[in-house]
User: Fold this.
Amino acid sequence: MGIIRGMNHIGLTVPDIDEATTFFKKGLDAQVAYDSQTLEDPPRGGSEVERFLGIPEDSKITRKRMIVIGNGPNIEMFQFENTSPSRPLDLEDYGYNHLSFYTDDIKAAFEKMKIAGGEPLSEIHENTRYEDTEGNGTVYFRTPWGSLIELQTMPNGYYYPEDSESEVFIPE
Assistant:
């Protein structure tokens, strides 16, 4: 085994942490682990923070929250002031463009995400090669702030090409 144990968390900037938390709780049963930056704290900014985090000059972190969803990586949410909001990435854009969550009941998860305010981009459909085993399904949702979330199920697992170096992790 290598020196990397696994993925710890994913960073996600949102326009409103409370709105995003409500969405993740309703749609994906998220739980708050902690708030490491609150509105009661002085905004986090300045030249040193800008250098450490690669954020634009004069932008400030006003809120930061860590949430937990199932047994996958944690999600660290950021809320900023003094920034020029840009649109969230679409699937064709360079960079990290979606979060995928595994579910054992994709139909129930689909309905739960809709009730939480997620907008399905399609109906549940089959996965593509190596994920298209019997009973599989996938669907993308747009969150209320525009990010992409995928729901996915593969009750019969993956299959692999002969030159595969590893099997894909499936949360248990």
Summary: The longest strand covers residues 60-68.
